[in-house]
Specification:
heterodimer, A: 306 residues, mainly alpha, MetI-like fold, 68% helix, B: 710 residues, Rossmann fold, 3 domains, 7-stranded mixed beta sheet, 20% strand
Chain lengths: 306, 710
């Protein structure tokens, strides 16, 4: 039927002269431009670089002993005895600990997020493309796992195995892939029935070509955007687990664990143990969410200027 | 209610006097801007309009002309970022822009009503019909629950709903498109408005339903004594219904006049060009072989400053003066903003200063191809059946029956011929197209391409056959991968069929672009950078890449504006002549099919009810359904609409889940009798019809130049 909806896209038809003169740019380049126009996305990206730089490059310039406890210098307030952020209950320098903890949080977050996205994407894509019984069976597995409260399972698993960084990545990844699996399956189902896939089949093309040339390139945006949110979620999961005392054992640290330790000192006025890790968690999660929003715009072809 | 009776009386008297009546609504130099992410679109620029009480004003224009923005500005429903930045909206003499907000809201809510294009999205799916219809009453008049229901039933009865007392408890999804639009109209009318704004009220509906809705609006206008603003892109809809017409282009009113006057002698060059671009005009005035006049180029980008006449870059009669001078509307009854108007002689479009270029003797050129090769039709469909399993609800999804999408359809398409397939939505015409190109497998029956049965082939052979027949989509944007550049899109069919090497493919793509009239620069661009008409050209180029002998066009021009549609139709014809292509042209628009097709097949509910030469089917229809379809098509000849009083069908299309036995049309047919419960065969020689009571006997074989005997 005729759909002449002007309301949505006023002046959408381009000036032919305009279309001829505008420089030709690739999709990635155009996407980059759109991403850069989103201020919050840039803020997010800057924030992430800042935090990652602090955690990974900071220790090169700011040397602290994060292995041996120093019971002579516990609960020092910020600024005392050359500790800019003070010290904690066992005498570790708080700023150095923040950097060390950040390393764990970011590594576990990134790795678990990527792992979850990869597993979920493959699972969902296979279910969506193959369809039929395979789809039904695979998605029921996802439904079943989703029905179990993840926090409960995390606690159970963390109690059974000794938490280490690789173990945390696997544990979190093992449960976080359910979301991406559902998302990608839906995407595959809609992409499979798109008219351009039908047009290709009308030319005599095969299923393999449909997946390679049409479905994967169009689904990749959704997957990448989702990956950034997965990373943010994984960082929060690390924090939850550590907060519950199921994180990596000392002297290793992470932001959630630091928060948990600091909580015990809430009423003793040791605010410097609570606020820095809390704020750091908020900032990094925000950063990934902003980046994800920006990427979403960048991958939306229709938002591009002609 | 009591409030609105008093002005109604006054205005009825006023309308009777005819002179010195205050307009019900007057727009003065209205400017509307829409702020987008980048830049501002000046959607309306100095729009002035008047609507008299009790009058129907037609506002017509192509997409982007500002007709919808005008309606939305009046109603205060502009999209985000939209704002009226200048001018006045005088309703009953008071400027809506300077009144207090509360009063404006009341005025718009009670004294104006609006009907939108899509009746599905303009109704809330979670609300019962009755509640929804009465909502304005409860908001603005504070009536109680029981009374609201009563009033809802009453208004639904007046818009012609069957069993209104039961419908009030239904939800929107339980009604058909036409019924939903009636509900939307009832909703707009429930407060007895003085002004009804209908924005493309019938664009989403089938022609037979469209006719019912337009007649309803007409009747209601008289009954309620209200004024109507009918906004549409379809000149035909306006011609039959409006008292006066305003033609809009690029955010301005370019011409207003009484309807008869405007269609008899349009003055503005844009109006003139628009009418010439209609296939209907071409068929009537110059015969079917004439090319359509197509307006070159695209409408201007309204986000940049424009000087001079906005139509100047696309106008045949442009002078330097046009480009530099802003032209105001002339005075008088027939206003137009054109420096070089069509001369005022009432003969109008017949005396064209620049005659349409006609190819020398295209009939002769095309006809021999047809005759010599009628031996093997390029496409032969025999007893084609397609059923879809309908799933019931619940976990086990038991089969709840079959939807009979295509039932026993047979036809042939000769090489170089255009076979038009018309019918309303849901009649199975698109399914036939998809079956023909092999996107779906038939439940029964045969599809022969060049004499080879598709069903007998598998794998590689089957894919090779795909070369012979290609599909052209309605929405080319949806049919192109948004992440692929045009060169990749055009190369894809060649890659799939492994035609030539890289260099040969590039050469082929360049020649394809030349054929569809696009510059080579488009190769590096992405689909979203093109307008609808350009996309349709690229789509056509892709269909042609494999040098098929048949192209199945599924509503190929339905989403395009009239002027762009003419460009694409002309192109399709040129290519047919050059390459000897055959088309299956699927459309709901009878006037386009009439223009394009050599032979027409009419489908109703999965069955082919009439097949014959285009001229005979359209001018001497034998099946009552075809006649009803023809009568329902709005025409730009106002007298034609009034004169036709042939077959009017009422009611709705029956469900294809349990189609009526025998003749499927019998449930709505005015001529139906008992014998219609048995199925009539498709009988006849050249002009076949499946009806027990055909309207007229088969016309004698007149100079049988197209000997396509079945």
């Amino acid at each position: 039927m005729t759909t002449l909806s002007e309301a949505g896209r006023p002046g959408a038809a381009p000036d032919p002269a305009d279309a001829a003169e505008a420089p030709v740019r690739g999709l990635w380049r155009q996407g980059f431009v759109v991403f850069c126009e989103n201020r919050l996305a840039l803020v997010g990206l800057g924030l992430f670089i800042l935090l990652a730089g602090l955690c990974f490059l900071g220790p090169l310039f700011y040397h602290t002993d994060q292995v041996h406890t120093d019971l002579a210098a516990v609960h020092l307030a910020p600024g005392e005895q050359g500790h800019p952020l003070g010290t904690d209950g066992v005498g570790y320098d708080q700023l150095g600990r923040l950097m060390l903890g950040g390393q764990t949080s970011i590594i576990v977050g990134l790795a678990a997020g990527i792992l979850a996205t990869a597993v979920g994407t493959i699972w969902g894509a296979v279910a969506g493309f193959v369809g039929g019984w395979a789809d039904t069976a695979m998605m029921r597995v996802v439904d079943a796992m989703m029905s179990i409260p993840s926090l409960f399972l995390f606690m159970l698993l963390a109690a059974i195995v000794t938490p280490s960084v690789p173990m945390l990545i696997v544990i979190i990844g093992a449960f976080a892939w359910l979301g991406p699996a559902r998302l990608v399956r839906g995407e595959a189902l809609t992409l499979r029935s798109r008219e351009y896939v039908q047009a290709m089949r009308g030319m005599g093309g095969t299923g393999g070509r449909a997946v390679r040339r049409h479905i994967v390139p169009n689904a990749i945006g959704t997957v990448i955007v989702n990956a950034t949110f997965q990373v943010a979620d994984a960082i929060l999961y690390v924090a939850y687990l550590s907060f519950l005392g199921l994180g990596v054992p000392p002297p290793a640290a992470n932001w959630g664990g630091m928060l948990s330790d600091g909580l015990a000192d809430t009423y003793s006025g040791h605010w410097w143990l609570l606020y820095p890790p809390g704020i750091a968690i908020i900032l990094i999660v925000l950063a990934f969410n902003f980046i994800g929003d920006g990427l979403r715009d960048a991958f939306e072809v229709r938002l591009r200027r002609r | 209610m009591s409030e609105s009776t008093e002005p109604k009386v006054r205005q009825h008297q006023a309308a009777g006097d005819g002179t010195a009546v205050q307009p019900l609504l007057e727009l003065r130099d209205l400017d509307t801007d829409i702020a987008l992410r980048r830049g501002t679109v000046h959607a309306l620029d100095g729009v002035s309009l008047e609507v008299m009480p009790g009058e129907t004003l037609g506002v017509v224009g192509e997409s982007g002309s500002g007709k919808t923005m005008t309606a939305l500005s009046i109603m205060g429903l502009l999209p985000q970022g939209g704002q009226v930045t200048g001018g006045q909206i005088l309703f009953e003499g008071r400027d809506l822009r300077s009144l207090p907000a509360d009063e404006v809201r009341r005025t718009r809510g009670v004294r104006m009503g609006m009907v939108f294009q899509d009746p599905l999205t303009s109704l809330n799916p979670t609300m019962r019909i009755g509640y929804q219809v009465a909502e304005p009453l409860r908001v603005h008049e504070g009536v109680g629950k029981a009374e609201a229901r009563e009033r809802a039933v009453e208004i639904l009865r007046r818009v012609g709903m069957p069993r209104p007392d039961r419908i009030v408890d239904n939800y929107p999804h339980e009604l058909s498109g036409g019924m939903r639009q009636r509900v939307a109209i009832a909703m707009a009318l429930v407060c007895s408005p003085r002004l009804l704004i209908a924005d493309e009220p019938t664009t989403a509906l089938d022609v037979t339903t469209q006719r019912q809705i337009l007649e309803l609006i007409d009747d209601l206008r008289e009954e309620f004594g209200m004024a109507v603003i009918l906004v549409t892109h379809d000149l035909g809809v306006i011609a039959g219904r409006a008292d006066r017409v305003a033609v809009m282009y690029a955010g301005r009113v370019v011409e207003t006049a009484a309807t008869a006057e405007l269609f008899r002698s349009p003055r503005h060059r844009y109006t003139e060009a628009l009418m010439e671009a209609l296939p209907e005009t071409a068929v009537r005035e110059a015969g079917k072989e004439a090319r359509l006049y197509s307006i070159p180029g695209l409408p201007p980008d309204l986000s940049r400053p424009l000087t001079g006449c906005r139509f100047a870059p696309r106008c045949r009669h442009v002078t330097d003066e046009c480009r530099s001078t802003d032209v105001a509307l002339s005075g008088g009854e027939h206003q137009f903003a054109c420096l070089h108007p069509v001369s005022g002689t009432p003969t109008g479009p017949v005396t064209l200063p620049a005659p349409v270029v006609r190819e020398p003797a295209p009939v002769e050129a095309a006809a021999p191809v047809r005759v010599e090769s009628t031996a093997t039709p390029v496409l032969s469909v025999q007893n084609l059946v397609k059923n879809y399993a309908a799933h019931g609800r619940g976990l086990l999804r038991r089969n709840a029956g079959q939807v009979s999408a295509v039932a026993d359809v047979s036809f042939e398409v000769a090489p170089g011929e255009t076979f038009g397939l018309v019918g309303e939505s849901g009649c199975g015409k698109s399914t036939v197209g998809r079956l023909a190109v092999g996107l779906e497998r038939p439940s029964a029956g045969q599809i022969l391409l060049d004499g080879t049965d598709l069903a007998g082939l598998a794998g590689r052979e089957r894919r090779r056959m795909h070369r012979q027949v290609q599909l052209m989509f309605q929405d080319s944007y949806a049919a192109m991968n948004p992440r692929m550049r045009v060169d990749a899109i055009l190369a894809e069919p060649l890659e799939i069929q492994k035609v030539g090497d890289g260099a040969a493919r590039r050469a082929r793509i360049t020649s394809l672009l030349d054929q569809v009239g696009l510059s080579r620069r488009v190769l590096e661009r992405y689909p979203h950078e093109f307008s609808g008409g350009q996309l349709q050209r690229i789509g056509l180029a892709r269909s042609l890449a494999l040098q098929p002998r048949l192209i199945v066009g599924d509503e190929p021009v339905s989403a395009l504006d009239v002027s762009i549609q003419a460009q694409v139709l002309n192109l399709m014809r040129d290519l047919q002549r050059e390459l000897g292509l055959a088309y299956v042209f699927i459309s709901h628009d009878l006037s386009v099919v009439d223009y394009m097709a050599d032979r027409i097949g009419v489908m109703y509910l999965g069955k082919l009810v009439e097949v014959g030469p285009a001229r005979e089917v359209v001018r001497a229809a034998r099946h009552p359904y075809t006649q009803a379809l023809i009568d329902a098509v709005p025409s730009i000849t106002p007298s034609a609409t009034a004169a036709r009083d042939g077959v009017t069908i009422q009611g709705e299309l029956p469900s294809a889940l349990n189609p009526p036995t025998g003749c499927r049309f019998r449930t709505r047919c005015p001529l139906a009798q008992e014998i219609c419960e048995t199925e009539p065969p498709l009988a006849g020689d050249r002009h076949q019809v499946a009806c027990h009571f055909p309207l007229r006997p088969e016309a004698d074989a007149v100079s049988a130049q197209t000997g396509t005997a079945a």
